Amino acid sequence: MKKVSAIIKPYMVEDVKNALKEIGVNGLTKSNVEGFGKQGGHKEIYRSKEYCVQFVVKAKIDVIVQDEMVDKVINVIIKITRSGEIGDGKIFVYPVERVIRIRTGEEGEKAI
C-alpha cells in the first residue's frame, strides 16, 4: 500500500475528490496548509502599502491506496490540477506498512 499526498490549490480540492471517487478511491483526508516553494510567497497591497506574504495557502490531500492504484491516482491529480504555472503543487508517494480500521480491527487492504 502507498500514501499519496498532494499539495494543491484549495479551490481544486472538490474536483480532485470527485475524480478520485470516479476511479474507486474510497477515502480522502484534506488539510489546510501553508508553505512556499519556488514561488516564494507573494505580494499583496493593503491600504496602499505593499506586504510580502511569506507563506501561500494550499490544501493537502492524502489517500491510501493499493500499489496498483498509485499511478491512476497521480494521473488524476495531475490532470485536474496542472495549469503549467508556478504554484500548481507537488505530489509525494510514501510506503504504508500497516493500516488498521479502529471500529472493526480490520487490517491491510480491507481497512482502506
Please summarize what this structure is.
This protein is an alpha+beta fold and 112 residues long. It contains two helices and six strands, in the order E-H-E-E-E-E-H-E.
Your description of this structure?
The protein has 112 residues and is an alpha+beta fold. It has one domain: Alpha-Beta Plaits, CATH 3.30.70. It has two helices and six strands, in the order E-H-E-E-E-E-H-E. The chain has a four-stranded antiparallel sheet with strand order 2-5-1-6, with helices on one face. Strand 3 and strand 4 form a beta hairpin. Helix 1 runs antiparallel to helix 2. The radius of gyration is 17 Å and the shape is elongated. The chain starts with a strand and ends in a 17-residue tail after the last strand.
Reported CATH architecture: 2-Layer Sandwich
The shape, in one word, is elongated
Give the ordered list of helices and strands: EHEEEEHE
Percentage beta strand:
35-45%
Distance between the termini: 9 Å
Overall pLDDT metric: 91
User: Main sheet?
Assistant: 4 strands, antiparallel
Q: Report the total helices.
A: 2
Characteristic terms for this protein:
alpha+beta; Alpha-Beta Plaits; two-stranded antiparallel sheet
Give the SSE map.
Elements: E1 2-8, H1 13-22, E2 29-35, E3 42-46, E4 49-53, E5 56-65, H2 70-81, E6 90-95
Antiparallel strand pairs: 1-5, 1-6, 2-5, 3-4
Helix pairs in contact: 1-2
